[in-house]
Amino acid sequence: MKELVIISGKGGTGKTSIVGAFAALARRQVLCDADVDAADLHLLLSPTVVERHDFRAGHKASIDPERCTQCGDCLERCRFGAISPDLVVDPLQCEGCGVCHHFCPAGAIDFPESLCGEWYFSQTRFGPLVHARLGIAEENSGKLVSLVRKEARRMGEENHADWLLTDGPPGIGCPVIASIGGASAVLIVSEPTVSGLHDLNRVGELARHFQVPALVCVNKADLHWDGARQIDAHCRSAGYAFMGYLPFDADFTRAQVEEKTIIEYNQGPARDAVVALWEKVVRALQASDVGV
Ligand code: SF4
Ligand code: SF4
Fold first, then answer.
1. Closest ligand to 82 CA?
2. Quick one: which of 159, 121, 163, 113 has its CA closest to 138?
């Protein structure tokens, strides 16, 4: 099973449209939405949830007034201002350090694992999807990414899938690190701007650090051909495998509005460009020059 993670240096590059289109083009695939902070692959794929699971991570303090002797020790110790003068913990302020729980002389502070979100096994018209929803203002997204990816891999192995296609998180933080380690390759979706080149370098270095081969495409290339060609040239010098250009095309948005991938939407030039990109990615993953 080849695991391809589609990532970008920032959000809004068209990553999810590309993942949806690849999902429509691949055969024997499992899909994974690892962009758990802003999951949106489900908007294109309209999944039917088959299993729903709680995601618990981190801890939050909670004071039991029945046991509390109102000594005020926790109020003094909390460095995050999470405990009010009337000895109630604000769960949004609590960082889960556990100091109050550890030192409370009355054993009045509970410290349970907190419910941070949910993750799902679903079915889509293109195959199984593992995805998640992180609660508002919740952290631990890296841990949730690791979890959905592990479950997607397990499902792929059970189903003898040929492909695991993962919509990765944007940026270079903990969630993207959790999404790329051990993958067959990443496809970095770039844009033809100065900041696009900068973002490409940051995320490309991350992939290199984790020894994951980096493929690159430029979306909305026709908005600035000079910038797009500059990225192509840069990939050659930096050792990234350049996969091609996608046009700026309102059909991508129109397809999204109809909850379709560009492959299903029409037979236009945007569709042709994505098909050509997919075919090149498949060839690259079968070749040795990206180290797969
Ligand atoms: S340290 Fe424990 S007993 Fe003291 S005020 Fe806090 S919760 Fe109550
Ligand atoms: S767990 Fe830490 S952050 Fe949370 S209330 Fe206790 S001392 Fe404050």
1. 2
2. 113
